[in-house]
Amino acid sequence: MTDDPFALFDAWYREARTTEINDSNAMALATVSADGQPSVRMVLLKGHGPEGFTFYTNREGRKAAELEAMPRAALLFHWKSLRRQIRIEGPVTRVTDAESDAYFATRSRDSQLGAWASDQSRPLADRATFESRFAAMQARFDGGDVPRPPHWGGYRVAPERIEFWLDREHRLHERRVFTRNGDGWDEGMLYP
Prior knowledge:
Blueprint: H1 5-19, E1 26-32, E2 38-44, E3 47-49, E4 52-58, H2 62-69, E5 72-79, E6 84-94, H3 97-106, H4 109-117, H5 127-140, E7 152-157, E8 161-166, E9 174-181, E10 184-190
Antiparallel strand pairs: 1-2, 1-5, 3-4, 4-7, 5-6, 6-7, 6-8, 8-9, 9-10
């Protein structure tokens, strides 16, 4: 086995991309508010490498407010079909506007329009209101490109700790943990 957590992540992720039926790039994102209230939700991994793990969102919603107030997060990938999970913890930073623009341009047109129409995480009186706002965005950008909204962009979790969990029979699981040490990694194992 490799002693490079990114190589191990890549190998597990490649396998998950071929075995998981839906959203193999789905990861639970855990944040905490300024007053210590934890919150977790699913987001989609849109890029990864030694610099970190990247996802995109509306920067006016709850998760963004929590990340701005307390710029640390935990991620969890769980691939049930492989009986594996990966936990990642570390500080969070915004990605550059250029990175956000480049990713936004790859989204489907309806997803782009939805980013303009949604006041993510805010109360919504009824579905018709959102659908009306979506239709208004369709009309606004009809015949042209949809630019990235100024309130929408990416975040990157820079890992300080990565744990690989492998299910074993009788709950005798295997857990490998990598902890950042300067420019390298310390590796160890944990009891199940």
